[in-house]
Design brief:
Strand order of the largest sheet: 5-2-1-6-7-8-9-10
Largest sheet: 8 strands, mixed
CATH superfamily of the largest domain: NAD(P)-binding Rossmann-like Domain
CATH class of the largest domain: Alpha Beta
Oligomer: single chain
Helix content: 40-55%
CATH architecture of the largest domain: 3-Layer(aba) Sandwich
Order of helices and strands: EHEHEEEEHEHEHEHEHHHHHHHHH
Shape: globular
Number of strands: 10
Structural class: alpha/beta
Number of helices: 15
Distance between the termini: 46 Å
Strand content: 5-15%
CATH topology of the largest domain: Rossmann fold
């Protein structure tokens, strides 16, 4: 059944960009913003001056600090706040909700994927929206392709139909485990790619870390029940290439700054936006240990995040014992 309205939870850059493009597909978009001052300012000025300046919100986007829930809810909340926000939304919902998660990450203390948290807070099978996208480019109308994944194939197809338009193309995929894990893990590899950039180590090094990073992601995805083929798609390779090479990548920027010798706390204090790879690194290594999966690039990133100088961490990574590429 076609929806005339959609609620978006999260007024960061990605939530705002999705609101802008979906305003062309829905009669009404309710955008919930956690900060009441920012919400009031956005509703008045029609601009998100903190997270996505330079873009005007269409008239049918209604911004509020109060949750106004439609039958379809698109969650774009940072991973560490997701459970709290969805529990709040679940308590306020007065009608059945179908939830779509556009958050990339893994919950630290439970190892839960974002759609698993959604399923714990709302009845019904959720969907996942992901793929290689930068918020500013999507808001600006640049062409992009994304993935809609759900165990409910009919729900995924409904979203695909409702969201498709303009320069956005959507593909469906039933491998929710693979899609979500690949989307979360690529942020770690992007930090390593950023460190290579910051140390001016060249394109050869970047290509190597992307390729071997893809292998790490695939090993853990398969160990957790996902499909290796998914890692070769938009949620895996596509998003990995974008995040490792794109100038707008927050995780890549963290790596660049670490290579300059800056502390992680100083780097994070300079940005209002979340670099999900920072918290995902620790969780990924715990999962890798649980499944006896080797993730040397992720270990190198963890070392840099913990204060080891980037040249030393990368030197230890490249000096590891030789091995077969296919193992």
């Amino acid at each position: 059944m076609a929806q005339v309205a959609i609620s978006i939870l999260g007024g960061g850059s990605w939530g705002t960009a999705l609101a802008i493009v979906l305003a062309e597909r829905f009669e009404r978009v309710n955008l919930w913003v956690h900060n009441p001052n920012l919400a009031a300012r956005m509703e008045s000025t029609r601009v998100n001056d903190v997270y996505l300046p330079g873009f005007t919100l269409p008239a049918n986007i209604h911004v509020s600090h109060e949750m106004r829930l439609c039958p379809w809810v698109l969650s774009v909340v940072p991973s560490k706040h997701l459970r709290q926000v969805l529990e709040q939304a679940g308590k306020q919902a007065t009608t059945p909700i179908r939830l779509i998660s556009a958050t990339k990450g893994i919950e630290a203390h439970t190892f839960s994927r974002m759609s698993e948290i959604a399923e714990q807070c709302f009845p019904g099978v959720p969907a996942v929206l992901t793929g290689p996208t930068f918020a500013r480019e999507v808001a600006d109308g640049e062409p992009a392709a994304m993935v809609v994944s759900s165990r409910d194939a009919d729900f995924a197809q409904q979203i695909q139909t409702a969201f498709t338009g303009g320069n956005l193309r959507f593909y469906t995929n039933d491998d929710v485990v693979g899609v979500e894990l690949a989307a979360a893990l690529k942020n770690i590899i992007a930090i390593a790619a950023g460190a290579i950039e910051g140390l001016h180590l060249g394109s050869n090094s970047t290509a190597a870390v992307i390729t071997r990073g893809l292998a790490e992601i695939s090993r853990l995805v398969v160990a957790r029940g996902g499909k290796a083929s998914t890692v070769s798609g938009l949620a895996g390779l596509g998003d990995l290439v974008l995040t490792c090479t794109g100038q707008l990548s927050r995780n890549r920027r963290v790596g660049i700054e670490l290579a300059k010798g800056r502390s992680l706390s100083d780097i994070l204090s300079d940005t209002k936006m979340v670099a999900e790879g920072v918290e995902t690194t620790t969780v990924a290594l715990k999962l890798a240990e649980l499944h006896n999966v080797e993730m040397p690039i992720t270990q190198a990133v963890q070392a840099m995040l913990s204060g080891q100088p980037a040249p030393e961490a990368l030197r230890q990574l490249i000096s590891r014992a030789p091995r077969s590429e296919v193992n």
